Amino acid sequence: MAEIDLVVRYFTSYSGVRLPLRLVGELAVEDMRNRNTFYRGGFAADGRLLRCEKMVYGEIEVCHEYSYHPDGRLARAVIHAGGDDPETIDYPA
Question: What is the mean pLDDT of residues 56-80?
């Protein structure tokens, strides 16, 4: 994924079964001190979720990276889970 400035926000969980994940239960930065598990979302300036990380005890357990078609629909999801090769899901235009 190309390097761009992301707005980072923190969440307790996600909802739904379709991609991209919908992060819910936003947490303030000051609430993060005592959390062992949370989701860290990286958002583009327009609000689209580009990167989602499930954090467990300070380590990334699962990471999703998203790219979008010009019309805003999901174009690709790359899912990194553990040490396995990432899974790539393409969504045609």
Answer: 96
